[in-house]
Amino acid sequence: MPRAIAAVSIAAIFLTVGCQGGESNDGRSVKPSAAEVTCDKIMSAQAKAAMKRIADIPDSAKVAYLGNPQGAADDLVALYDTGTASEWDEVDFCGAHKGSEGLGSVQVRFALADKLPEEGNVASIFKKYSMAKAALAGVKVGVLYFECSSKNFASGAGATVLVRGEVRSRYETSEPEEAAREDALRIVYESSRAVADLLACKSNAGLPGSFTMPPEV
Predict the structure, then answer these.
(1) Of the given ranges (35-44, 174-183, 196-205), which has the lowest mean pLDDT?
(2) Which of 3, 176, 183, 197 is the most exposed place for a label (fewest CB within 10 A)?
(3) Where are the domains of the chain?
(4) How far apart are CA 154 and CA 58, in angstroms?
């Protein structure tokens, strides 16, 4: 099956949400309701298919895309504002669940990071790619670091924050290695663009407007 290269733009979805939400008097974005921003709505068909492939979920299986995107963004702001943020304090974003409940076969999480991964300290399962601040991909995990400057942080005063996104499959994939790496990066890229929109990051947090497989570094 040919692999689609261009991702469906998440920006169009959040344009509608933004019109409904608008901005508060202090310039911070007004939060849309959870019903307006769901994992099923913000993940493109290509990203959903990628989730199924990296977890080896057959096309015939019923899959639910569950999570609370707005809640995840709110949690990141709360972690920063309370000064308790750690890269180990991950917040769940969206997951692909085989059936409609139980543990996700694939899960995307976000955390606030202190620094980028140090050169030479990246695990051998990863390859490094040129996207945002740093991108890493293995056959069942993808990681993306991006910098978000937003008035939503620091109680409206604004701050620039390093965010770490990760997608991880609970299961092995039968995909070829390079195809699995591309799928992992596509999922974490789309999720990061969605979080950047929800956080109202300036300049889309340095993330490209659509997904193409970035060059290896």
Answers:
(1) 35-44
(2) 176
(3) 11-206
(4) 44
